[in-house]
């Protein structure tokens, strides 16, 4: 039997839930959405990420549409995993007040084909049955396709190799041991792990192998607290707009230097990585004081030698390794695996696909594209507006990290400008007002209005500059970064 619905959404993470929120604003109460996810509940990667993860932005800015949190905490509170999952479940329940949602959890999307006015979708349920669905539209909100990480495979039997996904550093096995700890990876997971360990066991020997070092966004500057919201800090959109303004397609080093000096924060002297994570001065201080050693290199292996063991680094250097020490795999998740190319929009505009091979709205990861593009889908404009899309998987392979950040700023504002032009003013304003992922909402209204006015007044003029930067990058690195609609990509 074929299930019928108005819209089918694959993925119940923050991207899928934002798409569902938008769907609920266009569909009526008796229309039906089928929500599919291979995981057992709503929440996406938060369902099975490590236990001590915390949201890195203040919790109100992680939501579907403008659905408010019910958590009784101050605005700056960084929610933990269970709280995030509870909120995402709450979002789903709220949305279900406005539209009929059938949840198919534990169900794998397999393929879809557009036939006439419909999309024919094939899925496999948890018990192996084939489920056929016929929908008017399909939104594939795969997002980042973040998966769990296994422990690192190390040669020495004297290393206790673990992964945050399967081992909580706050629990008794770690607490009852006083062997040194090596955290491998200096990104968000590495920082969360160091922070958790140093808080739980002050004085424990904790070492960090930080690779090229990671640049974080300064929480104190993005989210100044109390009355300082009126005169300190800078709304994130103004920061990224300034980056887009400065970037000409070739000068990413200067652009990132500007960012680092004005809005960045890091634990390490050098920073070759940037993934948009946020860190505060006080977290940095706690971690920097608690760490025994920070190694600016990559771990290759831990090997036995002369009755002992040593850490082998990519540079060829070695470091002494106390037998029985812990090695925690915090090497990251995003952009690790390769996927076949797929444009964000199908030829007839009925299928929207949110994934890393064709990204029009890069901030924040996944959720931004899901929100804005779902609006275009329901307005019948998805296949008309010639948004540029970047193949971020290809870009990561071919270009240095910092180019990606600089080019994402140009891409973001270029496409927002096209969307602003394609929608009637009132519709655009309403869309922006219900966009809960917008960090600008941290600031009082006058400062937010100034940031929006800066964009609205200048975007058509600035767009030419953004386009030149995007075209330059596409040519320089030989990557897909251009219009998808009617472009044959
Ligand atoms: C460790 C870590 C910490 C992070 N912390 C933050 C943070 O603090 N703040 C922040 O804003 N971002 C954070 N991020 C980024 C994070 O990835 C996004 O915030 C967001 O949760 C991603 O949501 P998503 O919906 O795009 O993707 P996901 O959460 O990955 O959801 C996609 C869903 O699609 C489902 N799916 C995919 N393919 C199929 C298929 N074929 N069939 C059925 N289902 C399918 C998956 O099961 C999954 O549930 C973090 C990322 C990581 C890795």
Question: How much helical structure, as a percent, in the residues?
Answer: 25-40%
Strands, count: 20
Distance between the termini: 35 Å
Taking all Cα atoms into account, the compactness measure Rg is 23 Å
Low-confidence stretches: none
Proportion of residues in extended strands: 15-25%
Largest sheet: 7 strands, mixed
Bound molecules: flavin-adenine dinucleotide
Instruction: Give me the secondary-structure category.
Output: alpha/beta
Shape: globular
- Quote the average pLDDT: 93
Number of helices in the DSSP assignment = 13
Give a quick precis of the structure:
The protein is 34% helix and 22% strand. The chain contains 13 helices and 20 strands.
Give a verbal description of the structure:
It is a single chain. Helix content is 34%, strand content 22%. It is of the alpha/beta class and 489 residues long. Strands 1, 2, 3, 4, 5, 6 and 18 form a 7-stranded mixed sheet that branches. The chain has a 5-stranded parallel sheet with strand order 7-17-8-9-13, with helices on one face. A 3-stranded mixed sheet has the order 11-10-12. Strand 5 and strand 6 (130-141) form a beta hairpin. Bound molecules: flavin-adenine dinucleotide (FAD). Flavin-adenine dinucleotide is lined by residues 10-16, 36-39, 44-46, 49, 53, 55-57, 62, 108-109, 141-146, 188-189, 333-334, 364-366. Flavin-adenine dinucleotide binds next to helix 1, strand 2, strand 4 and helix 4.
